[in-house]
Amino acid sequence: MNSPEPAFFASALINWYEKHKRSLPWRDTRDPYAIWLSEIILQQTRVNQGLPYYLTFTSHYPTVKDLADAPADEVLRHWQGLGYYSRARNLHQTAKYISYELDGIFPNNYAGLLKLKGIGPYTAAAIASFAFKEPVAVLDGNVFRVLARVYGITEDIASPAGKKAFQLLADSLICGTQPDTYNQAIMEFGAIQCTPVMPDCLFCPLQQTCFAFRNGLVQELPHKAKAKVGRERYFHYLVLQWQGQYYLRKRTQTDIWQGLYDFYLHETDGPVLPEDILMQELQLLVPQEPLPRVKAVSESYKHVLTHQKIYARFYLIRLHSRLRKEIAESTGLNLFSVSEIEQLPKAIMIDRYLKTSVF
Ligand code: SF4
Question: CB burial class (10 A; 0-12, 13-18, 19+) of residue 252?
Fold first, then answer.
């Protein structure tokens, strides 16, 4: 049997979707702002983990203008735990752009949406089809998997040639009359039925026409070349404490966690911070006094990002007095109470340390 015809494929998916879809708040709206929020959040995480973030954002910022007018730190704080903080910054900037340059009106088509910062082809297609019924095909991990298996596409999904092949196929399959439901259906089908590890092939409406099922290739498809191993980084945080308060600084450099707060950082090539380097750092920070002692060294915390693995240790240091003004200014360090720190946006690794050792 050959691969399914577009009309059969679309109607099988839509029928399946009507029976099995999960009830989710962003499916009951045509508001492009709510759809945009949900799609940006769901790029970071699974539905169950993303839902509380969606509810937090829509309750704090019911309109795009509310989000535009929110302080940047507060937006990052609400995003905390999702990772990829540049997406939160783009979200905020784009909300300002829509509110103040476009009079609060979202572009109502794929090409216009694609021009907005932080909105790529996937998100533009999702908003254009869900909010405005434009027949443009979404391509996310779930859709790649369904198409690769059903139509036997063996190209690497991460390669430019592979992406092109999938996009061509997806564009040829989009249902012209119900593009919104079709796009929702194929993504939901990939998330629930045609799952990565144990797809439910036995009760699948596409089983008879599915290339991977007929050829015993379900576990082999989609094909994705192995990612390169990311670099390893070793962070040593000097947690400077003075009278129950802590020195933190905002990360401003072009690096991970830009805009988030952390402690004074010394980075090394290997896991050990040599004693003499630690002493040198302390001398720079508190030149006027006898050097304070390190009160406690934490265990090693590990955090895995897409292209990097971060290992961090925290060295708790009780200062005898405040940092000199010029040193605080040159290092960007500011003194915060514990309750103030709780409100700051922080990388999840910093939060984990604080919850274990400070809060
Ligand atoms: S038969 Fe299995 S692999 Fe093929 S579409 Fe259905 S669930 Fe996916």
Answer: exposed
Q: How much is the average pLDDT of 33-39?
A: 96
pLDDT the model gives residue 227? 67
Q: Say whether pTM exceeds 0.85.
A: no
Q: How far is the CA of 210 from the centre of ligand 1 (A)?
A: 6
**231-357 is classed CATH 3.90.79.10:** yes
Domain ranges of the chain: 6-214, 231-357
Q: 6-214 falls under which CATH superfamily?
A: Hypothetical protein; domain 2 (1.10.340.30)
Q: How far is it, in rounded angstroms, from Cα 117 to Cα 123?
A: 11
Quick one: pLDDT at residue 173? 95
d(CA 150, CA 140) in angstroms, rounded, equals: 16
Question: Residue 228: pLDDT band by 50, 70, 90 thresholds?
Answer: low
Residue in the block written with tokens 């129950």: 244
Under DSSP, the state recorded for 161 is H
Sign of the CA dihedral running 51, 55, 61, 64: positive
Q: Which residues line ligand 1 (CB under 6 A)?
A: 149-150, 193-194, 199-201, 204, 206-207, 210, 212-213, 218
Strand pairing report for 231-242 and 308-318: parallel
Catalytic annotation present for 74 = no
How far, in Å, from the CA of 72 to the mean position of ligand 1?
44
* Exposure string for 204-221, b = 16+ CB within 10 A, e = fewer: bbbeebbbbbeeebbeeb
Place 3 in a pLDDT band, splitting at 50, 70 and 90. confident
Q: What is the pLDDT of residues 321-349, one digit of tens each?
A: 999 999 999 999 999 999 999 999 999 99
